[in-house]
TrEMBL record:
Organism: Hoyosella subflava (strain DSM 45089 / JCM 17490 / NBRC 109087 / DQS3-9A1) (Amycolicicoccus subflavus)
Name of protein: Thioesterase domain-containing protein
Keyword annotations from UniProtKB, A to Z: Hydrolase
Organism superkingdom: Bacteria
Database matches in Gene3D superfamilies: Hotdog Thioesterase (3.10.129.10)
Domain Thioesterase: 60-138
Record-linked PANTHER family: 1,4-DIHYDROXY-2-NAPHTHOYL-COA THIOESTERASE 1, BLR5584 PROTEIN
Hydrolase as UniProt keyword: yes
Alphabetized Pfam families for the sequence: 4HBT (PF03061)
């Protein structure tokens, strides 16, 4: 059994970095859809997924919920990366704009989230999803509530 870190004693950035190096991570949305971590810095986070047939919407392209989940994840964790130990957050609002359809045939999507403002009770962030050719697929913004 893997010993999980004591999250109450770790800053958001420390926790995120510790979680991605754990060999046996606790269940999470990233594992469910195959997210792979990339950049994890103070105020900036990047995750990747490779599309697959079970991401399909009824028209046979990637369901918008995949990009929304990627954006919610990178923007929220970008906020989390700025928080001190013992402080949590939750998505209060999520806005997504879809730019182009994406095939389900193994296309790598890279999502990057960066903070805009982190205050005492709320934070905002923005994010973008690009395909393997560097084309913008979706972008969004979020407002997070900070739990102190």
């Amino acid at each position: 059994m893997t010993a999980y870190p004591d999250i109450a004693k770790m800053s958001g950035l420390e926790l995120l970095r510790a979680m991605v190096t754990m060999p046996d991570q606790p269940p999470n949305i990233g594992r469910l859809i195959g997210m792979e971590p990339g950049v994890i810095e103070f105020g900036k986070v990047q995750f990747k997924v490779t599309t697959r047939p079970d991401y399909a919407n009824p028209l046979g392209t990637v369901h918008g919920g995949i990009c929304a989940t990627l954006l919610d994840s990178v923007m929220g964790t970008a906020v989390h990366s700025t928080l001190e130990a013992g402080v949590g957050y939750g998505t209060l609002e999520l806005k997504v704009n879809y730019i182009r359809t994406v095939p389900t045939s193994g296309i790598e999507l890279t999502a990057t989230g960066t903070t805009i403002h982190v205050g005492r009770t709320t934070a905002t962030a923005e994010g973008q999803v690009h395909d393997g050719q560097g084309r913008l697929v979706a972008h969004g913004t979020t407002t997070c509530l900070i739990y102190r």
